[in-house]
Amino acid sequence: MFGLFRKKVVAQYRVNIQPADLELQLKQGENLLEAVLERGIAAPFNCRVGACKTCQIKVLEGRPRSLIEREYVFSQEEIGSGAFLACQTRVESDLNIVWPGLDGGIEKQALHQHAELCMVQQMTPRIHRIQLTLESGMSWNPGQFAKLLPLDLADEPRCYSMVTSGDDERVMSFDITRYPDGRISSWLTNPENIGKPVRVEAPFGTFGTFRDEDPGHTSGPLLCVAGGSGIGAISGIIASRAGNAVPGHDLAPVILIVGTRDHAEIYGLDELRNLARESNFPLHACAVLDREPQESAWSGRRGYVAHHLEKILEEAAANNPKFHQPHDAWKILLCGPPPMVETSIDVLRDRGIRPEQISFDKYEQLSA
Questions:
Q1: Is 209 within the bounds of a domain?
Q2: Which domain holds residue 142?
Q3: DSSP string covering 60-73
Q4: Which phi and psi angles does 310 have, rounded to 5°?
Q5: Within this chain, do residues 197 and 274 fall inside the same structural domain, yes or no?
Q6: What span, in angstroms and rounded, lies between the C-alpha atoms of 68 and 50?
Q7: Whose CA is closest to 32, among 59, 51, 7, 52?
Q8: 6: pLDDT confidence band, cut at 50, 70 and 90?
Q9: Fewer Cβ close by (within 10 Å): the C or N end of the chain?
Q10: Above 70 in pLDDT, residue 103?
Q11: DSSP tag of 101
Q12: What count of other Cβ atoms lies within 10 Å of the Cβ of residue 307?
């Protein structure tokens, strides 16, 4: 009878990693990226939420378990060839994988340099727009992000999305949510630190790009869902699209849904409405608040974005026939907290939206 209380034996699996010529013994269920980092191995990664594809691997043999639906990240051809994201992969068998960059033999495209904090502007009670002056020019696409670390702090860098695109630019802008226990976000949004140095590594990520289009040249109708400071990155993508428009050609319509805590956290919509008028494209913008006091004068939507998505799409089409588009015509941009992104994807999938129509970026809240 004492056999009933024996500890369950956790299986161990062999993971062979090429071209680094490494062999690791990992426990069943271990996260592949975390296991490698815990062993002091320098592996390429950035977002850790399955959005940037920096930790992409190729599985040659074995049956790992993906924590995300790979169709929303990879093409069917990539999936067929064994593409996984290490940060979203659990070990469930012996594995033979190819992990580019793990051996340091592949040069990273990201550049790092020092910058100076030159502006802090409060946009809402929690969100601030900051600007950094770079030592030298740098280029990036709208929707990409940078790793920032004030030289005053001994922390791991934090990832923040650039608000605008840049072509050999020396000024970078970011919208940053300040958290009371966030050392880096508090430092970056403190005007007293203007003039102090910040280490910048960029650019990273593919948010805002789609498999059938060039970066920064998104065409077709856009459905954008932005949570919190995600409005900054999405606004930059919309502005870039307007700036790249071909003269004489009408821009496709844009639906923008902002999900935030309360009405005090809404910002940037007036600027986008002005841009829509100047660039002559239809814009349907609205907000959904999940913590607005019941006694307030807010008469708009309350709750979670995913619960209102279908009604908002119907409302936009009823108000302007240009928003009445076939499902396969839409490009979808989702940017903000993981629960908002994930629940919105579920609703869109039920409406027949295909994975290749969606580009997303999840903003994780970390203590720094």
A1: no
A2: 111-204
A3: EES--EESS-GGGT
A4: -65, -40
A5: no
A6: 8
A7: 59
A8: low
A9: N
A10: no
A11: T
A12: 14
CATH of residue 120's domain is 2.40.30.10
DSSP element (H, E) containing 240? helix 230-243
Share of the chain above pLDDT 90, in %: 59
Final residue belonging to a domain, choices 67, 98, 129: 98
Domain count, the chain: 3
Highest mean pLDDT range out of 51-65, 68-82, 292-306? Answer: 292-306
Give the pLDDT of residue 106: 34
Q: Which residue has the tokens 């593409």?
A: 83
DSSP per-residue codes, 319-346 = H-GGG---GGG-EEEEEE-HHHHHHHHH
Task: Record the tokens describing residue 101, joined without a space.
Answer: 């960059």
Tell me, yes or no, whether 194 lies in a domain: yes
124 lies in the same domain as 78: no
pLDDT at 355: 84
Q: Is the pLDDT of residue 240 over 80?
A: yes
Instruction: Tell me the mean pLDDT in the region 267-274.
Output: 94
Do residues 290 and 266 lie in contact, with contact meaning Cβ atoms separated by under 8 Å?
no
How does the average pLDDT of the chain come out, rounded?
A: 87
Q: Is the pLDDT of residue 243 over 50?
A: yes
Same domain? 158 vs 70: no
Higher per-residue confidence, 316 vs 167: 316
Same domain, 62 and 125: no
302 occurs within a structural domain: yes
Residue 168: inside a domain: yes
Q: Which one has a higher pLDDT value, 165 or 272?
A: 272
Kindly write down the DSSP assignment for every residue of 156-206, as one continuous string: --EEEEBSS-EEEEEEEEEEEE--TT-HHHHHHT-GGGTT-EEEEEEEE--
> Within this chain, do residues 79 and 121 fall inside the same structural domain, yes or no?
no
Q: What is the number of helices (H) and of strands (E) in the chain?
A: 7, 19
- 3-state SS class at 263: helix
How many alpha carbons fall within 13 Å on the CB side of residue 176? 31
Domain boundary among 54, 71, 98: 98
CB 134 within 8 A of CB 172: yes
d(CA 210, CA 207): 8
Distance, in Å, from the CA atom of 61 to the CA atom of 48, rounded to the nearest integer, reads: 23
**88 and 117 housed in the same domain:** no
